[in-house]
Amino acid sequence: MRQAILQSHEHYEIIEEYPKDKYLPSYLVYSEYQGDIFHILFAVDLEGANVRIVTAYRPNPEEWEEGFRKRRNIS
Length: 75
Hints:
Elements: H1 2-7, E1 13-18, E2 26-33, E3 36-45, E4 50-57
Antiparallel strand pairs: 1-2, 2-3, 3-4
């Protein structure tokens, strides 16, 4: 997954923003690498000028609409 994250930066698309996340503002990013779709959660430390990867995963089709850019309304 590390290689996919590093080499797919051209495909990054912010799909959700969490500006008031617990520790740092964070962003859920959609990306693709060699036909594989995945999401990356980045925490952004603007004062320290760095970005942290919190997690990366392959989205569950039951939780995401087609295209994996918008969550399904499960209520």
